[in-house]
């Protein structure tokens, strides 16, 4: 069976029809493509680069296996000679990229592919697919982290993510951006992300009484008992926890906390906190979930809601307020000649580019300059070599290492960019004189 996550058939048909035309026309010189976001969504002041590791894995393993070749041949869409060429196709090119967790802005390439045109073209659809989703989710998760920096944030969104791969990508991207854990078990097995979980309302409903449900769950999970108290009456559930805590303590079981998943989370958590504190359960934590996102988090945090953690589900995993990015993978050079798209509203900057980042005296982001790769310019360079000759230059960094790097990146954001609403003055991204001059020359050459 064909593995969809690996298969080069997971692409748009026009990638293959162009590939056949490239081969037939002998358009096989070196091409340079760059992936970037044309403009930020309305509610975003910055984005966080993610998905590079899955992209490199895909490129390194690129090939058509016999089942895929047989299917293409049987489809009748392509000539036999083209199928033969595909049998030998591998990715042999170069990749430069921003490290995962890097904060970036519109028009800044986060990945560049340099390869023979057929190779560079074929991978477009899957690369956009991989980079788009994780960047989208990491960027939203980062907003949650900035809003509630001292709280435990957990990805709860698997069940409403758009498919299995999306659920795994969301767990990884949110952890990269600073979430503490996920509820998705496979994400711990695959990526080493801590998993946490409590109990469902159905567990309570399956018992004849709430007390019996709480006791059975605590006895089954004596080291990690967090009880869901809002199945029937949240405040009564909290009082029942207070009543049961000494009984369980006598059995050597220390409850860890309670979870509230419905109702007025702010008001209920304050009442529950009083009940727990006056009942001798001040050590128990309160965990909130239920239709949360960074905007609701902001309201709860500003109201000094006595919650220790939050489960963020649907709104995170589908990035509900900004469900897509205007991201593209565009040709910038072919056969040593810079190329530029000039379509209205979709013009690109030609050539191989670098992003030069400038910080102020406090170590905060000040401005970025988009320039040519080989020009001398002050500032930190953001794109670095990660693949040569189709092979990685180094082992993938541990996800925890990338997570720490992302935290460092978020710490450099100036205050206006940290908010949930558009900054009064967008972050400045300038264009170098050399790049502007090149664009003018390209325009004249292709007039």
Mean pLDDT: 96
The neighbouring-strand order within the major sheet is: 13-12-1-5-3-17-18
> Looking at CATH, which topology of the largest domain would you report?
nicotinate phosphoribosyltransferase
Taking the sheet with the most strands, its summary is: 7 strands, antiparallel
Find the structural class using helix and strand composition. Answer: alpha/beta
Note the overall shape.
globular
Rg from C-alpha positions?
A: 26 Å
Question: How would you characterize the overall build of this protein?
Answer:
With 447 residues, this protein is α/β, with parallel strands linked by helices. The protein has 2 domains: 13-137 and 324-445, nicotinate phosphoribosyltransferase (Alpha-Beta Barrel); 148-317, TIM Barrel (Alpha-Beta Barrel). It is built from 17 helices and 19 strands. It has helices spanning 13-25, 52-60, 66-75, 80-88, 117-122, 124-147, 164-176, 185-191, 201-205, 210-220, 234-250, 265-278, 294-302, 314-317, 399-411, 415-418, 433-445; strands at 30-37, 47-48, 94-97, 103-104, 111-116, 152-155, 181-182, 226-228, 257-260, 285-289, 309-312, 327-334, 337-338, 353-359, 365-372, 380-381, 384-388, 391-392, 429-431. Strands 13-12-1-5-3-17-18 form a 7-stranded antiparallel beta sheet. The chain has a 6-stranded parallel beta sheet with strand order 7-6-11-10-9-8. Strands 16-14-15-19 form a 4-stranded mixed beta sheet. The radius of gyration is 26 Å and the shape is globular. The two termini are 49 Å apart. The model has no long low-confidence stretch (mean pLDDT 96).
